[in-house]
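The instructor's notes for this session suggest beginning with a concrete chain rather than abstract definitions. Hand out the sequence below and ask the class to guess, before any prediction is shown, which regions might be ordered.
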Amino acid sequence: MTIPAKHPRTAQAAELFRVGGPLVFTFICDMSFATITTVATSWISPTAVAAVGLTINFLFSTIVFFFISLSAITVITAELAGSGQHGKIGALLKSGFKLAFLFSISAATLLILLWWSLPLLPLSDEGVGLAQTFLGICVWIVPLEFFVFVVVFASNGLGRTFWVGAINFAAVPFFIALTWALAFGNLGFDARGVPGVAFAILLTVAARSCAFSLLWLQKEFRGLNVLEGSVEAGVTDIRRILKIGAPLGFTEISGLASIAVIGIFVSQLGVYSLAAHNIAHNVFAVAHVMIFGLSRATVIQVGFMVGQGASKSAVSSLISTAFFLALFMSCSIAILILAFAGNIAALYSQDISVVNLVTSLLAFVAVLRLIDDCTMVLQASLEGMQQTKTIFQIRASSHWLVGLASGYLLSMWLGIFGFWVGIGLALVYACGFLGVRLRSQLQLLDAPISPANK
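After discussion, reveal the predicted structure:
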């Protein structure tokens, strides 16, 4: 009796889920850290939640460029593995550690400047003191994260994502327990308040970093010579990491900055509009959870296939599978958001005016999440082909020239809904142009290589 072979699409979907599924917990872990910190500080005092909330936003904005830039190690590792140049990954890690060191110094300098600038924020003397204490403790997580994620990104690029997800999953209850003990005085500890929350974050990140360092014991890392690895220009050097990673970092900064500016404009429409906008945007971000894993898996798989020298049809087949999976997941999430919009809004606020406005905005969120999830697959495919400069150009122009400009103009007639229509237009613009660029890149896969380009 013969067992029928898996359909190619089924095999591709299974591999995307195998690689991307565990990475969902990376997203959940990051969201949980921010949520738990917000809830814990809200139980301490209104001043604490305001001070820590602002500090977290500034801390994240300061380091996001460096962190995203380092993530280029993932796609480079995938390409090297696909092309059979596994031995060169050690040299890539060597460059990654050097870059992590440089980034740590740069980030530390910026965070020191931020610490001195905190008194300029619209906070009370107590709030400034809490913010500086929190930042002074949490600043130590930066070098830990930068160095250990060089290994994490390489592990992801090799398709070894299970333990990355498992460690992130375990970090959440560990952080909750430490916060409960250190911030609120349980298990024999004194109640430390905001410093306790900060120490809980630091200790959790330290423990997680130690666990991540054990990824080096995986068989794929055996034989990699980091200390004596010979760095090859244009292949495993710092310049190549930055060439691929820096545009991604700038893309993230552009997106965060445009959302912040939109928030400032929305605030002029009144407190209810700003509250509803922030809630709707939070739901939009949380609904990103499933596509995060799929998009990272697409980057890794496309990068591996490009390294293999796969044909246009093979790469196109993988991308289309990822695209249809994104459509399926997005439709499911959109239906849930539309079906329970009122209930979701009520979880965030008891004010009937805010709830009604959020309920209306969630209809936009459901539709826009569908568009953005498909766009994320297209962007991930281009990232896998290392076309990150194109990603930045399209995304930045969509943020500012389309989204912000059209949103501001439409808000004169539609109020807060005008800004969300603008966000939608920006996503449609990005989806269309990323799709066109991806199509042209796929055409090059089967193009003959001229002697001049060999």
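Then share the key points. Residues 216 and 222 are 8 Å apart (CA to CA). Residues 1-5, 448-454 have pLDDT under 50 and may be disordered.
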